[in-house]
Amino acid sequence: MRTLLSLHAVSRSFAARRAAFTARERLVAVRDVSLDIAEGTTFGIVGESGCGKSTLARLALGLLAPDAGRVAFDGIEVSARRDPAWRRRRRDMQMVYQSPLAALNPRRTVGDQLAEPALIHPGQARGSAQELAELVGLSADLLARFPHELSGGQRQRVVIGRALALRPRLVVCDEPVSALDVSIAAQIINLLRDLQHAERLTYLFISHDLKVVRQIAQTVGVMYLGRLVEIGPPDQVFFDPRHPYTEALVSAIPDARRASRKRILLKGDPPRPTADLAGCAFRSRCARAASRCAVEAPTLRSVDGRDVACHFPAPPVREAA
Ligand SMILES: Nc1ncnc2c1ncn2[C@@H]1O[C@H](COP(=O)(O)OP(=O)(O)O)[C@@H](O)[C@H]1O
Ligand code: SF4
Ligand SMILES: [Mg+2]
Q1: Whether pLDDT at 89 is above 70
Q2: Would you say 47 and 40 are in contact if contact means Cβ atoms under 8 Å apart?
């Protein structure tokens, strides 16, 4: 299958917001991340708050430039520059955020906001606001309403409809259902899946919740402190995790926990992701950590059909009893 989006060894750091008297320090939000997304498929990213998911999303869309590495969309390097050629390509890539209320203009009707892309890019948008509403399962009588008159799920449908107005090929969804109730979230996931099928869309789908990612992704990447630590098919990651961090994430989900596996409570908080953090970034919280982990950062390597960045990956679940 053709690769639509590819990230190769991408890193991005920020100047730390610290008190003036401390030395200048850089926090690495995304560190050495590589991934490929085949056209028409979904790559899910899961990880706790602050691990770098939104930074990765912005890098993927060219809204942020990487410090190192390369991001390519359909074989062409994505840049954060604003030249006309890039702006044309930018329409092929859209974003859906967590908060539809923040993404919508409170003073304009739903119909106006769905029609807006066609006004800005005449001739390139698909049909009318009515057609877009139908595409995302909104009834036409909602077009005259304002965002605050809609439910959270309806608002997210508006945001998705607007994102699809210019017929993008890639949609980056950054926590698109995290603000919704479980049943509404499931409806939005179903909608995204149906649209993917109908429109041959490619998704980079981000969530802090592995259960949600599993419902839509063909490949899942688990992120910890800016790095991808395990990448594989969702069921393997969910039922048979091999990275100690994934093990802990999964152990908190009753559906995924096998009788032989106990809940693993992580001790402490993640360390600050400073540029000079040596060894494995997970070692301060890892029950398997050994002396090698303090000096040598693990890189991804293949373990039983998935990639794991750990010197001492967990054994298969069936042997773990
Ligand atoms: N513009 C920025 N300036 C400084 N630090 C930032 C900026 N954006 C993100 N960060 C930092 O980068 C890290 C990752 O943030 P983010 O990508 O938003 O994580 P997530 O989406 O997983 O919660 C955090 O430590 C955050 O404070
Ligand atoms: S490399 Fe070591 S510290 Fe890091 S996750 Fe593996 S065992 Fe734990
Ligand atoms: Mg985020």
Answers
A1: yes
A2: no
